[in-house]
Structure formats: C-alpha cells, structure tokens
Amino acid sequence: YEEDKYFIRACEIGHALSSGLRRQVAFLVNINDDHWVAVILDFKHDLILLGDSLDQSKCVMKDVLECWTKHHSGCQFTVQPLAITHQQDTFLCGLLSFNALAHHFLPDSYPLVDAMLVANGQLEMMLEVMEQHLDQV
Length: 137
Fold this sequence. Notes:
Layout: H1 8-19, E1 24-31, E2 35-42, E3 47-51, H2 58-73, E4 78-81, H3 93-105, H4 118-136
C-alpha cells in the first residue's frame, strides 16, 4: 500500500491527517458503479461519518474505512451516520450525497434537501454549477 503508485494520494492524505496537518477529509464514494455515498473521516474526533441515502452501503464501506483510519492513526474510529436525505427514487443519490457534505460543513447555506423536492434540488444544483462556470469565463 505505502509503495504502490496507485495509492500515493491516499497515503499522502493519511499522513496529513495523522500528523495533524489536516483534521478531516470528506469525499463521495461510488459503490458498484450505481450508488454514491458521502464519507467524512474526522481524525480530531476519531469518527467515520457515512451518509447513505439508501441506507444500504454501511457494511461495504465500514470495514475498508475502519482499516484505513486505523492504519494511519493507530486508533479504532467510531462509525456514525451522516445526516442525509433518504432517497425515494433510484437515481438522485449523487445529489443527495453532495448535499449531505455541503450541509455538514455549511448547514446555514446548504440545508438538507427535502425528499419531496429532490427534483428541484437537482435543478438548483445545476444552476449553481452553471453560475460558478459563468463567473470563471
């Protein structure tokens, strides 16, 4: 793992977290090419936060994340759920996962999307991305 070129970035992030240079890292994970899950690894509080809009991937992700955090910290992390809107469809997990991360870090700016208004949330996200790109042009 430590010397494999495919894991260089994961090792760098692990070292930054374990040394205290960084306190936490957040990312989205794709499960089986059809589902997105939000993850926050909090090294300050020894926490793994998992946000799964279908509440089905905890078993898949839990072991891998616990192994990785223990490797880099020497500690057993506690796994807790990340606040996320539970999806009522089969295709908006990406939006809901991203929304869960945004809500965790900036709750006043990004409330959790209402399950009944997810389609509106998708349009709002698209508009925000477009505005960001237009500001760069």
